[in-house]
Amino acid sequence: MITASQQFAASVVAELVAQGVKNFYLAPGARSQALAIAAGQLAGAGKLSLTVRLDERSLAFTALGRAMSTSEPSVIITTSGSAVANLHPAVLEAHHSGVPLILLTADRPSELRGIGANQTTEQVGIFANSLRGTHDVPAPRPGSIISAKDLVAAAISQSLGGAKSPGPVQLNLQFVEPLSSGEPEAVKVLAGLEKRPLDFPEVPEDQIEIEVDDHTVVIAGAGAGPAAVRFAEKAQLPMFAEPSSGARYGSSAITNYLQGLSTSLAGEIRRVVIFGKPTLSRPVIDLIRNSSVYVAKSRQYGNFDIGRNAIASSWNLVPSGVADRRWLESWKAFQPISEPRAILAQTVWNAPGSVPLLFGASNIIRVAESCLEPKPKAVFSSRGLSGIDGSVSTAIGIAQAGSGARALIGDLTLLHDAGSMNISGLPNLNVQLIIGNDSGGEIFRKLEVAKNITPAMFSQLFLTPQRVDIEKLCQAYGWQYFSVANPTELGLAMKQDGYVVIDYKL
Question: Domain limits at 244?
Answer without folding.
Answer: 207-332
